[in-house]
Amino acid sequence: MQSMEYAFFMQLLLVEDELEIQGFLKTSLADAGYEVDVAGDGGTAEKLASAKVYDALIVDLGLPDQDGIDLILRLRRLGVSSPVIILSARRSVDDRVAGLEQGGDDYLTKPFALAELLARLRNLLKRNAAASLSPTTLQVGDLELDLLRRRASRGGEVLNLSPQEFVLLEYLCRHAGRVVTRSMLLAEVWGMRIQPDTNVVDVHIYRLRGKVDVEGREPLIKTLRGVGYVLKER
Fold first, then answer.
1. What CATH topology corresponds to 137-231?
2. Taken in order 148, 152, 154, 157, is the CA torsion positive or negative?
3. pTM greater than 0.85
């Protein structure tokens, strides 16, 4: 069960237009010790998230005025860095990957168990709190990640990364010099606890390598065939 001591004073924004689900979640989250603001559409959510710093957002994708993915993208462009749990009836791997690539931090399909939502929320908040105590930059060789501004550069040149590419590169940097498997990346970067038949990891590594390991620079991202990947300085 969610720890009341841990949740105390945690501020959440719940973006959900279905009144029955909205009321249930607001009551349940409040009972778990959270302070909850509610928005029934994307426009209201944007105003609230722009005016107040939330510890986390819970966003349904099927909003009446816009797609929840578009809302998350707008919030990220506005500098809202609060972690986001996506709620959606869209269950395919492609939908989950798209949600995580576009700025979501976790993805939970409807119908869901309240206990699972609370557990995922607790873990997300703990990871975010731990990250805030960590150094604000990561560096591997001439590759540098600014974790506050979510910006990567190599040799002083800014890399044009998508939100998901940045998360992937951050994970590789945090595990620099160690081999990470596709299973590890699917679980930790994409939040997939099962192993679907997908080449999403290979595709993103390929794209990331094209931006990080440009011609004329020492390659940093190594592929160990049949094993996984490793980020090395040389």
1. Arc Repressor Mutant, subunit A (1.10.10)
2. negative
3. no
